[in-house]
Amino acid sequence: MKITKKQLKRIIKEEKAKLLNETKGGVGIGFAGWEPNSSADFAKAYGKDAKVLHDFGSNARRQSQMQEVSNHRLEQALSDFGYRMSEEINGIVSQHVRGNWFEDPEVMDAIQAMLREVQEQYRQFSNN
After folding, report:
1. d(CA 44, CA 50)
2. CA distance 29 to 41
3. What is the C-alpha end-to-end distance of the chain, expressed in Å?
4. Which terminus of the chain has a smaller tally of CB atoms within 10 A, N or C?
5. How large is the greatest C-alpha to C-alpha distance in the chain, in angstroms?
6. What residue ranges in the chain does DSSP mark as E strands?
7. pTM over 0.85, yes/no
């Protein structure tokens, strides 16, 4: 079915009129004076028909649960990273030192010094 421009303009005009009639001359009471980035008064907007379907109350409990999950994930990620880091250190040092490098005090001192340096860098991040 083809629609002419004239028919399309008429349909748009009719639909616009319907929308304007639904709002009865303007915005709802609760939306009067509403601007972007401001809150509308929904109780006024919906008038006497407004009712609370469910009071969810404070979401502090849910936030606490989410924080616990987040903390657990962080702990797991750091644990996994610690394992991967020890494997990486083992791989790198094994390429450069023959034998049981972990029994060599000089190698162990060098590794501990590097880890202290990394620790100090993270302390500096937290101070900024």
Report:
1. 8
2. 8
3. 67
4. N
5. 91
6. none
7. no
For 102-124, how does the pLDDT look when each residue is reduced to its tens digit (9 = 90+)? Answer: 888 999 999 999 999 988 988 88
What would the two tokens of residue 79 be? 């644990």
In contact, 107 and 92? CB cutoff 8 Å:
no
User: Which single residue is written with the structure tokens 């004239």?
Assistant: 6
Tokens representing residue 113 in the block = 């010094």
**Locus of tokens 């034998």:** 99
Q: How far is CA 55 from CA 5, 58, 59, 60, 99, in A?
A: 50, 9, 11, 14, 67
**Quick one: pLDDT at residue 125?**
80
- How far apart, in whole angstroms, are the C-alpha atoms of residue 31 and residue 34? 5
**In contact, 40 and 30? CB cutoff 8 Å:** yes
Gap between the Cα atoms of 48 and 42, Å rounded: 11
